[in-house]
Specification:
Radius of gyration: 22 Å
Strand order of the largest sheet: 7-6-8-5-11-12-13-14-15-16
Helix content: 25-40%
Structural class: alpha/beta
CATH topology of the largest domain: UDP-N-acetylmuramoyl-L-alanine:D-glutamate ligase
Amino acid sequence: MASLAGLLQLKGHRITGSDQAAYPPMSELLERLRIPIAEPFAEVNLEPHPDLVIVGNAMSRGNVELEYVLDQRIPFASLAAVIHDEFLRGRESLVVAGTHGKTTTTSMLAWIYETAAKQRPEFAPSFLIGGVAENFGTSFQLGDGQPFILEGDEYDTAFFDKGPKFMHYFPDALILTHVEFDHADIYKDLDAVKTAFKRLVNLVPRRGRIVAFDATAHNAAESGSPNHVDECVSRAFCNVERYGFKANSMWRIVDLAHEGSRSSWRVLRAGEPWTEFSMPVAGAHNALNATAAAALAAGQGVPLESIVKALATFRSVKRRLEVVDTIDGVTIIDDFAHHPTAIRETLKALRDAHPGTRLWAVLEPRSNTLRRNVFEHELVDSLALADEVVMAGVFKMESIPEGERLHPESVVNGLKARGIPAELLQDANAIVESIAPRLRSGDVVAILSNGGFDGIYEKLPRQLSARAAKRG
């Protein structure tokens, strides 16, 4: 929503907004754009009546402003519909979709096009990303070229449109990363998730392209069944190009190596050497994301030289393996963890980037999937990659039916049974008080949450700074 606000402002519209509680990084972005945000929701925020109210998909009946909009018959629309009507007509729609990796892959693809545009202005991209891309310092851009690069979200569109947002984007070319069960609040099961992605694939025209993940047998358990993506693209009307580590993948990754936070690998195209990449971002999952972005861009005519240069200078995304601070020798990482698979890949990447260090995982179960018990066992498997685990209580636990609710104590007990030190503490204050005295130089602390986590990102550095100052 913040990104769309910025795009509409660039088109000359006057924008205001409302939220219950805005938090970084998007609150900071809006402040820089001088787009006023009213907190909390109130009818007065809609006076005088705007020409159009864009309703976010987190809004439901009973919200005071939404009820006022309906009572007063103020025109309203969804984010996805406005994107289509205001920005996609007459442009080339390039969409990145999948359960994991959307934000990072979209950011990579946008940076590839931006780099190419320095030599070829027709590649100057517009983009809309669900996070702040560090190369741009923003989550949106309105470029002069034809490409519009979009993060295609499978979550529902609005209270009046329960279909996925990505169904409004009509991709000319599509990246499909992983397909797993997620968003347990709106999807009944994995079959429902697959149906959504199949419908997206069905929107790609015959002249279009799909670049889709190709899971190998050995990583099937880690990346979802190898049949999930296969099944979703099996009836596509356009060319489908697969990427991954698999021997017969069209875009095959080989010789992947990590040196600190830098990754390097080679890519074979249809079995023949194509190029070598080096990127200052850790993790096998990010090598996959980068290869997908490179494959899509190359197929759309972007020069290879620009692709290699872009990935070599890619700076990741806010809240994706982001180093918040290093204080008294302790490195604090912020990662937007929303699913056990994402947690696992984050911890594996940190192992690659910081070998031999003590790795802490501090988790707030906050996403609609993590707050439920559907992945309780998988969560234990993912967190077991850390040396020390601290869990907070379930965010807004009372809003989840008791029979569906995650039991953090079960996760903690499961970790202890594997010999992993783990504890359950109810909030950020208790966590900081518990772990700050035990942290030592060289430790890496991964704070895993898709929200503000009660200010822990500020509270822990403050406590460590005070500890260091006390020692003199």
